[in-house]
Design a protein that fits this description.
Blueprint: E1 2-7, H1 11-25, E2 32-33, E3 41-48, H2 52-59, E4 67-77, E5 85-92, H3 94-107, E6 122-127, H4 146-153, E7 159-165, E8 167-176, E9 179-189
Antiparallel strand pairs: 1-3, 1-8, 2-6, 4-5, 4-7, 5-6, 8-9
Length: 191
């Protein structure tokens, strides 16, 4: 099973981000766009594992406060000039970092490495080229996102809204020819 831990997104924010994605999508043929039904805020990617039941037990021990997030602005990884991933930014207080840290600590005894350094939340909208976030010498920019970049530079940064997450979720990701399909395996409250 391919698993990850994430926060879901409120319907109103999902709709606003999807409308923005659809507008930008017209500018970038040959780019793999993420479907709005799969928008989420990844807290920790676990990869292929058969430890679903152990993970669920470990995640029940995570104690964290609800997380307020503001979805605003858009950008590119690794850089705007070498854009391979197009994302929407997420601003949050210390609660989001604390939640990510607590999840990492809870899963470390099962062999999962916590995210190193600061957690940089974002919502992926599209991937171009190999979608590797780190460039290597000789990598060329993925041309598909350059028109999106030009449009973003010519307008104010977008605002999508603020929400408070009251739960986090363990998801299973199933890869299909038409893209990833996500299934909720367990939901854990934040209080």
């Amino acid at each position: 099973m391919r698993l990850f831990v994430a926060l879901d997104i409120d319907a109103a924010i999902r709709e606003r981000v999807a409308a923005f994605r659809d507008e930008m999508r017209l500018l970038a043929a040959g780019v793999r766009w993420v479907g709005p039904e799969t928008f989420h805020v990844t807290l920790q990617f676990l990869g292929e594992t058969q430890k679903a039941e152990e993970i669920k037990r470990a995640l029940t021990q995570v104690k964290a406060a609800p997380v307020t997030m503001t979805f605003r602005a858009a950008g590119f990884f690794p850089t705007p000039q070498r854009a391979r991933v197009f994302w929407v930014g997420i601003e949050s207080g210390a609660e989001l970092q604390s939640l990510a840290d607590n999840i990492g600590e809870a899963l470390a005894p099962l062999g999962f490495k916590p995210v190193e350094g600061s957690y940089h939340p974002h919502l992926t909208l599209a991937r171009a080229g190999s979608a590797r976030p780190h460039q290597k010498p000789g990598d060329k920019p993925a041309p598909g996102l350059q028109a999106v970049r030009a449009k973003l530079e010519a307008q104010p940064q977008p605002e999508f809204g603020t929400m408070t997450a009251h739960e986090f979720i363990l998801y299973q990701s199933t890869l299909t020819p038409s893209g990833s399909r996500y299934t909720r395996l367990a939901t854990f409250p934040l209080s």
